Amino acid sequence: MARVVIGLSGGVDSSVAAYLLQQQGHEVIGLFMINWHDTTGTLEGDCPWHDDRTFAELVARRLDIPLHVVDLSEQYRARVVDYMFAEYERGRTPNPDVLCNREIKFDVFLREALKLGADYVATGHYCRKETTSAPDGTPIYRLLAGSDPNKDQSYFLCQLAQEQLRYALFPVGDLLKPEVRRIAQEQHLATAKRKDSQGICFVGKVDLPLFLQQKLAARSGAVHEILPTWPKYAHVPTRPDLPPDEWSDELLTALAEPYHYTVRDGKKIGTHNGAHFYTIGQRKGLGIGGRKESLFVLATDVHENVIYVGEGDAHPGLYRRALFIQPSEIHWVNPLRRLDAGQSARFSVRIRYRQPLQGATLLVRTQGAYLLFDEPQRGITAGQFAAWYDGDELVGSGVIDR
Fold first, then answer.
1. pLDDT at 194 > cutoff 90
2. In what helix (H) or strand (E) does residue 169 lie, and over which residues does it extend?
3. CB contact at 8 A, 378 and 323
4. Active site residue 47
5. The pLDDT of residue 47
6. Among this protein's residues, is 201 annotated catalytic?
7. Domains (range + CATH), the chain
8. Which tens digits make up the pLDDT trace of 220-250?
9. % of the chain with per-residue pLDDT over 90
């Protein structure tokens, strides 16, 4: 029997995870995190942590397990929220949920759990862990997709290291969401019918511009439309009839380079309140109507405070064949699968949560890594994470540089 500290969040997934651990004979201790106090920008009707704590207490009482409460809001602000503000200010789009798992749930929270004598730390994530061995006998922990294809959350854990996975348990990873709901109802857990949380990890659903205005000032700027006939779209390099690992660095760099626009390339069609409040591929919040098709953000220029948009989701400015990751941002979840400079391999890749996996070749060079997709990808966004899979296994990930 192991002592397992579970992050009881007040949601149904962690509640059922706690029950399953108990059924497996483990000593289960609940630990509730307070990570955010400020409600600036939180949408009306979204419950702050007070409600989450109440539900966590009800579940702990029902399962007859102790529940500890720890305030990690200082670390959360420093490691996740301040990072968010800094990235948006640079014109990039961060993924706070990935950062929250790497920096908080499996780092700061893990250390708190170890203080309670934990052998393992459990969460309600829909993913799985498998233990294998390196040739020298060292344990290797493989991160696998959850069994429920509609709820697989492995992407959010794409930055975890082996030392973090060593302690991790994912009790609901083999279950489908309806099964989790059924178990919660059968065990009369207070969270059985509670809606899943949405929005930013531990902050909730927010009005993003209002939330960001805590640190980033609103500033009026111009919206310029780029037509699909923009001449430079015709000059995108074509893929040569060669294996990708024989392609030149110059070609890979050109394919991964975002489109760069100036105000002379398009016509002004409106105004906005701050380029750093928008992200590539965004459709809502532009406030410009009267079009046959929706307008989408193609690019943002935070220095000149200009947004470039295009009409229709087939606009060529939304699509690219490749992306680039800086050397320091390449992360191997499974160190046995690491590629060195000059090596390449085929993977299935996603560049955002819930995106269907895309066929791609990962090519590692001295200057960084290129992901070359079989089909052009919509809305490649700097600051987001690309995660590469081999079958069910999440092998590695990296922050998209461009």
1. no
2. strand 168-169
3. no
4. no
5. 47
6. yes
7. 3-210 (3.40.50.620), 217-399 (2.40.30.10)
8. 999 999 999 999 998 888 777 778 878 889 9
9. 72
